[in-house]
């Protein structure tokens, strides 16, 4: 009996390269599958209904196109606000208009995909999807997932942008950037994986493209910075009054 050759375990860098290559190829496959399935599965009626409810008019989709976007986008006013899109998705409508949004691709284990994706996409992806819509100034995003070569193990959902979520994200990343990054103060965590992830997040590899077409972000970040400046002024005044009060108390103690 011929024995199979012994294959050494891949080096860590090789393993990462494999995961990257696999994910990249799967992203293309998922985008292509979504475009194919749009018109011969339930996606068309579900998406048209959700768009119609969102915009208060009858929406009829005639074509869908997923376009690869390889840029890393960074907000000039708040550099910790980043987005690395997989694709942009464009829905052509019967009246000639085109609706454009984010398209995010995910993979999952065939043993878990039905449990995690049947009713909706996993809640853990909510922040990422909302962050990407905010950065790109898109009103909606599509998130799809595939697991294996089983035709039924493919899921896709439409998510719309939410103003309250926008404010939450801007507040959180602004606090992180100006209170931790700019002051070189590590966030309060002992989890090195989290710290390493944050470091990678604020110093991404490769060039980033500044986006400036989102007036909401500019307005919110500018408001945040103005409030922080006012807070510093009032804190200084409070310290001055506190010092004066301490002097008063010292004088009173002397008189007594």
Core attributes:
3-stranded mixed beta sheet; 7 helices; disordered N terminus; 49% helix; 5-stranded mixed beta sheet; 8 strands; elongated; 256 residues; alpha/beta
Summarize the structure.
This protein has 256 residues and is of the alpha/beta class. The chain contains seven helices and eight strands, in the order H-H-E-E-E-E-E-H-H-E-E-H-H-E-H.
Describe the protein.
It is a single chain. The protein is an alpha/beta fold. Helix content is 49%, strand content 19%. It has helices at residues 12-37, 43-55, 113-117, 126-136, 163-181, 192-202, 215-255, and strands at residues 61-68, 72-74, 82-84, 87-93, 98-107, 140-146, 154-160, 208-210. Strands 1-4-5-6-7 form a 5-stranded mixed beta sheet. The protein has a 3-stranded mixed beta sheet with strand order 3-2-8. α5 (163-181) crosses α7 (215-255). Residues 1-7 have low confidence and may be disordered.
User: Would you identify the regions where 5 or more consecutive residues have pLDDT less than 50?
Assistant: 1-7
For the sheet with most strands, the description reads: 5 strands, mixed
Distance between the termini: 103 Å
Order of helices and strands: HHEEEEEHHEEHHEH
Continuous helix count: 7
**Rg over alpha carbons:** 25 Å
Q: What would you call the shape?
A: elongated
Structural class: alpha/beta
Beta-strand fraction estimate: 15-25%
How many runs of DSSP E, i.e. beta strands? 8
